[in-house]
From TrEMBL:
Keywords: Metal-binding, Phosphoprotein, Signal, Zinc. Binds 2 Zn(2+) ions. This is Alkaline phosphatase. It comes from Novosphingobium indicum. The lineage of its organism: Bacteria, Pseudomonadati, Pseudomonadota, Alphaproteobacteria, Sphingomonadales. Its EC number is 3.1.3.1. Alkaline phosphatase with broad substrate specificity. It is an enzyme of class 3 (hydrolase). InterPro entries: Alkaline_phosphatase_core_sf, Alkaline_phosphatase_prok, Phosphodiest/P_Trfase. It comes from the Bacteria. Residues 1-22 form the signal peptide. Coiled coil: none annotated.
């Protein structure tokens, strides 16, 4: 049934010509769109712009918000929730993105990790990727045939298209798992970066908009580029940190001609993602009528910079300055097209710095995870302790940076009990492990509710637990233990823990004319979908969401009462 929406009244200041693509737009500066000039409307926006910044922790947001002057700065005039939570324990990209527009925790989305194991599957590594169709014979965990099949919950875009098929639901990211998790199942266009250009599902073809963006980025990479500028406020972070036999903390992202790998690891790919988002708006005709559309944009490079260099060096400072400019360009382009749009910006998870830098900054207890907690080492030790030898494949899969550990296939009931008992005892005795749970324990725990900062460790793990996909034993490492056993160039820091530096993320809403508010009380990323649903007048049955609608207008108006 078609949702009924009235025509939207646009301010005359937005009656400007529409350029073909983002880079051609000449739009007003971010500070030109002031609340005092705006026309406040209770009607639905023409476009929902859902933005995720991968690995953008609440700590990074607090650290850099005073320096933002472009896109981020505009959002700070909206509804700011600086203490948002990815409430669950499995703080990885795929689970985090799965919560953003479904409004439910990973226990209900079924996305319990970036990868999980199926010991009985007919492939050597037994690993399944979160957006993979593993039934396709051409698919492998390292080169998957991308699919949304594993996502068990509908996204906001799915529900809006079900209510009105003329809604456009589209997504773009450098990462396939981010774009797929935010857009869902019923999509009009989904793109991600693969090796040297943006691509899509194997049963679809890239469109002229994507071809144009790929041509533009190819031209840039082939020509190369100088190092990126360092803002003055980055000076304190600009110092070398030794990690093993290499250095982080001073890199400025020069681009050698033809080096697609370097391009894919730095801020320039975020800029291309933003440019492609505008090309998609033009090509798909998004925001052109009173039926709201959904555009999901996940910027991946904060995560890649965080992994490669840590989050407290000059590299992250440069990255966030560049992303601020990219966001500003995106918003200005939408303004130039006269689109009434509502923005939400958040993150899939936070992140932790490299222990080598943390040691110099007041946290000497931070450390890389020990080899003893990796899958193979655990399997050897458990086999010796229990006397059980794997009849096929490995005795255990997982461990290390993953909290889920799976027992190998072909074990008898008695063998499974002996292996589980030995594994649990071994993990509980390990000084790097904070908590250990078996799948049988977690099955009887109810899904948690209430303020997420108060959740016990058991509740955080339960919010990530799916009995069909989670491990047989789940371990949570102690605060400060970084889930990397062997750091090296390109991988010195990570996330994935149940601790607040990985769980806490900002959540910010903005729409022209809304009254500003700053609300420090804890909220959750599962609150985003019901909040946006209220904005577009979408009514869903009780129990659809794990989250709640947030009143995002700081005035007496109640955005949840529509």
């Amino acid at each position: 049934m078609r949702l009924s929406f009235s025509s939207l009244s646009l301010a005359t200041a937005l009656l400007v010509s529409t350029p073909a693509f983002a880079q051609d737009a000449v739009a007003p500066a971010a500070d030109a769109v002031a609340p005092a000039e705006a026309t406040k409307s209770a009607e639905a926006p023409q476009l929902i712009l859902a933005i995720s910044v991968d690995q953008f922790s609440a700590d990074l947001f607090a650290q850099y918000r005073e320096h933002f002057s472009k896109g981020f700065a505009r959002l700070l005039d909206g509804a700011v929730f600086p203490s948002g939570y990815q409430s669950h324990a499995a703080t990885e990209t795929c689970p985090g993105h799965s919560t953003l527009l479904t409004g439910v925790h990973p226990a209900r989305t079924g996305i319990i990790a970036n990868n999980w194991y199926v010991p009985g599957i007919g492939r050597n590594d037994k690993k399944v990727y979160c957006v993979e169709d593993e039934t396709n014979p051409r698919s492998t965990s390292k080169k998957p045939v991308v699919s949304s099949d594993h996502l068990k919950a509908p996204t906001l875009g799915d529900l809006m298209k079900k209510a009105n098929p003329t809604t456009i639901n589209a997504a773009v990211s450098a990462k396939d798992r981010a774009a797929v998790m935010m857009s869902g199942h019923d999509t009009d266009a989904v793109y991600w970066f693969d090796d040297n250009g943006f691509t899509t599902f194997e049963d679809r073809k890239i469109t002229p908009a994507v071809e144009a963006e790929n041509a533009a980025l190819t031209k840039l990479v082939d020509a190369g580029a100088e190092a990126l500028p360092v803002p003055g406020y980055c000076s304190a972070a600009d110092r070398p940190i030794k990690v093993g036999d290499f250095i982080v903390g001073t890199y400025r992202f020069p681009l050698t001609a033809g080096d697609y790998k370097a391009y894919a690891q730095g801020p320039r790919l975020d800029a291309a993602t933003g440019d492609l988002a505008i090309r998609m708006v033009d090509e798909l005709g998004m925001g052109k009528d009173a039926v709201p559309d959904v555009l999901s944009v996940s910027f991946s490079q904060t995560d890649r910079v965080g992994h490669a260099f840590g989050n407290e060096g000059v590299e992250m400072c440069i990255q966030l300055a560049q992303l601020d400019a990219t966001l500003g360009k995106l918003f200005d382009a939408l303004d130039a097209r006269g689109i009434d749009y509502a923005v939400v910006l958040t993150a899939d998870h936070g992140g932790f710095d490299a222990p080598d830098r943390l040691d110099q900054q007041g946290y000497p207890a931070a450390k890389y995870i020990s080899e003893t907690l990796t899958g193979d080492a655990l399997a050897d030790a458990v086999s010796k302790e229990s006397g059980v030898v794997a009849p096929q494949g490995k005795l255990l899969y997982g461990g290390g940076s993953s909290g889920d550990i799976y027992l190998g296939a072909g074990l008898t009931g008695d063998q499974r009990k002996a292996v589980t008992d030995a594994l649990v005892a071994m993990l509980k005795a390990n000084p790097e492990v904070d908590a250990v749970y078996t799948a049988d324990e977690l099955k009887s725990v109810p899904l948690p509710h209430g303020n997420p900062q108060d959740w016990t460790m058991l509740q955080r793990v339960r919010a990530s637990f799916d009995p069909e996909r989670s491990g047989d034993v789940l371990m949570m490492t102690k605060r400060g233990v970084v889930g990397i056993a062997h750091p090296g160039p390109g991988y010195v820091a990570t996330h994935g823990s149940p601790w607040d530096y990985d769980r806490r993320v900002p959540i910010v809403f903005w729409r022209k004319g809304m009254a500003h508010q700053e609300q420090p009380a804890p909220v959750e990323t599962v609150d985003i979908a019901p909040t946006l649903a209220s904005l577009v007048g979408l009514k869903e049955p009780a129990g659809t969401w794990d989250g709640r609608c947030l009143d995002i207008d700081g005035s007496q108006a109640d955005t949840c009462a529509r």
